[in-house]
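Q: For a teaching handout, I want to show students what a protein-ligand complex looks like in token form. Below are the inputs, and the small molecule is magnesium ion. Please produce the holo structure.
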Amino acid sequence: MKIGIMGGTFDPIHIGHLLLGEFAYEDYGLDEIWYLPNGNPPHKQQAEESTLNHRVEMIRQAIRNVPYFKLCLHEAKETEHSYTYQTMRELNTLYPENDFYFILGADSLFSIETWKYFREIFPTCTILAAMRDDKDAADMRMQIRYLEEKYGARIRILQAPLLEISSTTLRERASRGQSVSYMVPDAVAEYIKKNRLYQKRKLDNGRLGENS
Ligand code: ATP
Ligand code: MG
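A: Here is the structure, written as tokens, with magnesium ion included.
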């Protein structure tokens, strides 16, 4: 099978993540897309973060009606850091019959050289890279060529609608009591509301802020 891997923090999952999965599925003839939430993201440590359980549950809700979208809990370990090179190696060992396609946005394509043992990622998968933010098609082609020539990476452009949506913006909106409708699936918007996610901003001294 041809499997797309959509790794991320998904705090919360939003329609940008879902569109990337959908377009990769269609345009590259993939069999399944596996959403892979990172258990303990080393670079994101903010007080208003939601727990792994909440992030996983929101993914479940977001993909529940799509038979070819799956949840992959391989990195869902709260106490350990997960690294993409290691996960991709393990997935190749566990499923030697599968071909893996790692899906990411431009910001990740441009920062991939900072990822731990990033060179080890390239033999394990084809990368499908989508445009995001201020990176245009020419920037993307340049970075792709650079990574291909320097590291032998296999990278293809993933065409998907450009959406200026990030989980950071959604967390900020929710913490201000603003709507996140239409930027996340309805069930996720309801989940955020019901569980009062992103509402409590801890102050430096540990007391709850005015949004609590
Ligand atoms: P945060 O603001 O917390 O970093 P995020 O919206 O970037 O959240 P992540 O979970 O960090 O979401 O992203 C997972 C992957 O999805 C990354 O490769 C990222 O580049 C990609 N991605 C997320 N949102 C978009 C978007 N709107 N367009 C293209 N790619 C996106
Ligand atoms: Mg991000």
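A: Two things your students might notice: The beta strands are 2-8, 32-37, 69-71, 99-105, 126-130, 155-158. Residues 202-212 have pLDDT under 50 and may be disordered.
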